[in-house]
Amino acid sequence: MLAHAWYVLMVSTAAPLTAAPPEAPLQQTPVAAADGADPEGRSGDIVVTARRREERVQEVPIAISVIGGAEIERTGAFNVNRLQQQQPSLQFYSSNPRNSAINIRGLGAPFGLTNDGIEQGVGFYVDGVYIGRIGASTFDFVDVAQVEVLRGPQGTLYGKNTTAGALNITTRPPSFEPEAKVELSGGNYNFVQAKASVSGPLTDNLALRLSSSATTRKGTIYNSSSGDDLHRLRNLGLRGQLLWKATDALDLTLSGDFNVQSPDCCVQYFARVGTTQRPLSRQYDALAAAFGYTPPSKNPFDRVTDLDAGIRSRQEIGGVSLVANWDLGAATLTSVSAWRYWDWQPQNDRDFIGLPITTISQNPSQQKQVSQEIRLASNGADKLAYTVGAFYFHQTIDTQGSQVQGPAASRYLLNPGNPPFLANGCATLTANACNPAVLNGLTSTNTISFDNTSFAVFGKLNYELFEGFHLQPGLRVNYDKKSGSYVSVVTNGAGALVICDPAPTSSVVRDQCATLAPQSYAPKFSDWNVSGDITASYDFSADIHGYATYAKSFKSGGINLSGLPLNAAGTGVDLSTQTVKPEKVDNYEVGLKTQFFDRRVTLNLAGFWTEVADYQATVNNGQLTVIRGYLANAAKVRSRGFEFDSSFRPSQRLNLYVNGAYTDSTYQKFTNAPCPPELSGGTVVVGASGNAGVPGANSAVACDISGQRLPGISKWSFSYGAEYNVPVGGSGGEVYIGYDGNYRSRFSSNPSPSAYTWIEGYSMSNVRAGYRKDDFNVFGWVRNAFDQNYFELLSTQSGSTGLIVGQPGDPRTYGLTVSKSF
User: Fold this and answer.
1) DSSP state, residue 506
2) Which one of 70, 649, 687, 713 has the minimum C-beta count within 10 Å?
3) By C-alpha distance, which of 163, 19, 152 is closest to 547?
């Protein structure tokens, strides 16, 4: 970890000026040892060759944090979700792989359920290849050399435009020196993880690398209904790379990977109950009483549920890429060609409880993408350096959604009438709410397609006006074209089509249409945009560097592909909500990077102010016809704050680090936002709203949440840790003990802040102790050492019942890891 203490904090808030880190086989060349330990007790001369010349990362003015592969192995951060514990400015949210989001500084993607028709604001790259579906970010890292987290817009250097930042993963390249490594971990909950890699020459100019990773773990949540353990892990990753050094100036790397995950996850279940404006007889407590239902536990950290629908989150990810680097002397030409696919096969319990309300709710999805990037970067220029490039991306997504209502749906979802109620909880014996056949078997079958094409040209200059002072302007021209189709066919329990337009006269059909309505629409979007940035930097001394940046960026407009809300008449969809406008981003940043005491102490500071016009937000309203929420534009959002990275290495024996971020992200203007649950569920009256949480009160069509916090963002977050080692045996061996901790303050877990969905602040502690010598390492570890109870997410049950469901974080885990290199 203290390799991290110095390595990460040495390179924090710095990045190459020219591009994403070099695609294999180009490599960073740190002066410090690979594990971050410097025999002289210094670790300040980490060097990169991203521009085909050596540069100290501390001197280049872009905000970035870098975590080496050795550090990932030591801390057990084998996926992005665990990585965020070490990166205060990084947020990762996932209710399942499809519904995942990576945010940086509070921006990137709307919090909540995924909508296929929009872009990610944070780019996700593996060996220079842009990954179009963020669900792929849930895979286990396979033979990773380093992970880089770039903060702020990156569109003038990266292939795909990114308004909030980028996460770039670089794997270990093939080697012409024979090498191999194996690693085996075991722990409680039957945790077993095995990793292996082998590399070496096939001929004088051809080298091969093969890597694999497999992880299994028993689930941490017990399902009393099925007897299964949920939230289990079952992951497999394979990767192969073939490097051909055609000449001294030309190399090509062909890569292929295959990853499959088949966990029984991801579940949300009873967390708490709030009061909405729905009539009291239609809120959770009364509905549960009408069925004689109680959850197996009302303490979510008992980790027991009774979900009665199938639970599955199987995904398959794979692809091939070809990276070519051709040194032309004055410049290097790089080409990155790739084809990738993603296959998602889920099962969910969308009512979140053990009643047969919604027995099936799933959206199996298949994505295919092709991309091509060409980039020319100057070599070794003294006064003027440049990077120019072009990027093409084409993506198709096909989704086969379905939702089926069960025998409890009528009573749970429909209005039982006005009191006084009969013994069965309905006003009359003929009330539809007391007739299970009204909704039982009601099925919505959704066919969704998406076609996305993007093309861009971009470039960046780095000009030294006078010694130590650089100006670095960048420009990007981008074109996006999106088209899609959403067709939802609804049938009743007898298999007959449900027709909702014209308005049905039958009360049974009206209730069916209010629950699941057929929809058919074909949204389109296309647009050009121009973005750019300019950075001024100055080297005050060899160890003090400052910079200031302004960036104007755009996130492409999008189309809604998860169903639309009904129109005012309730007979069809509101077509005005088919598309969302592009986000327009203005980002200001200043940074200072310093080192002291012979580079044994590093302190890096950055301040940022980002304003987003037409922010793309996820809207979840009270209509059940919108299965997964839809998109809308908030007029203005602002994210501002500061970050610091600090590391201390007083001796070869001791490393310490502290990183922190303050992030103030708010809706500056959002007057037509969805209302939180306490202001939802009553009789909708335009321009009127009753008191929050008062049953039977009027509910507004929309709420003004201007000035309130964005979801998922803690104002304060920190990571901190230390490692101490003692030499033993006199032959290079050492014993060590390490600690990594992190803290984040409370954050909202609902698109519109609600009193019921705040997740309180929490801290985590991970410890390890072991022995290492040369290429051998063995250590024991404990993660979440104090068994902190915390939620990763809280959500509301559809229909304004007041039920709040949660997804708890992992409990305390412990185990042993042994690794050996050859």
Assistant:
1) S
2) 687
3) 152
- Cα separation of 347 and 401, whole Å? 11
Q: Is the pLDDT of residue 282 over 80?
A: yes
Both tokens of 241, joined, read: 């790379």
Contact 13, 152 (CB under 8 A): no
- Mean pLDDT of all residues in 402-427: 84
Q: What is the pTM of this model?
A: 0.89
H/E run at residue 514: helix 507-515
In the block, residue with structure tokens 């899609």: 484
Task: Write phi, then psi, for 591 (nearest 5 degrees).
Answer: -145, 150
Residue 610 pLDDT level (bands cut at 50, 70, 90) = very high
Mean pLDDT to the nearest integer, 287-292: 91
Give the three-class secondary structure for 6: helix
Exposure pattern of 144-155 as b/e (b: 16+ CB <10 Å)?
A: bbbbbbbbbbbb
Contact 679, 689 (CB under 8 A): yes
Q: What is the mean pLDDT of residues 359-375?
A: 93
Spatial distance between the Cα atoms of 12 and 24, rounded to a whole number of angstroms: 22
Cβ-based burial of 204 (10 A; exposed 0-12, middle 13-18, buried ≥19): exposed
> How many CB atoms are closer than 10 A to CB 773?
15
- Asked if residue 121 lies in contact with residue 102, where contact means CB atoms within 8 angstroms, the answer is no
**What is d(CA 239, CA 176) in angstroms, rounded to the nearest whole number?**
18
Residues 580, 632: Cα–Cα separation, whole Å: 6
Q: Which residues contact 15 (CB under 8 A, 6 or more apart)?
A: 57, 60, 62, 63, 64, 148, 150
Contacts for 413-418: CB closer than 8 Å, 24+ residues apart:
413/357, 413/439, 413/515, 413/624, 413/799, 414/438, 414/439, 414/511, 414/515, 415/279, 415/282, 416/281, 416/282
780-802 pLDDT per residue, tens: 999 999 999 999 999 888 888 99
> How many whole angstroms separate alpha carbon 182 and alpha carbon 196?
4
Q: Measured over all CA atoms, what is the biggest interatomic distance in the chain, rounded to whole angstroms?
A: 89
Q: Which residue has the higher pLDDT, 551 or 68?
A: 551
Two structure tokens written together for 810 = 């992992």
Vertex 536: Cα angle to 531 and 541 (nearest 5): 155
Strand partners for 444: 403, 490
Distance CA 180, CA 393 (A): 36
Q: List, as one string, the DSSP characters of 119-144.
A: --SEEEEETTEEPS-GGGGGSPP-SE
Contact by Cβ (8 Å): 750, 703 = no
CA distance 93 to 80: 10
> Of 600, 604, 605, 594, which Cα lies nearest the Cα of 656?
600
35 pLDDT higher than 70: no
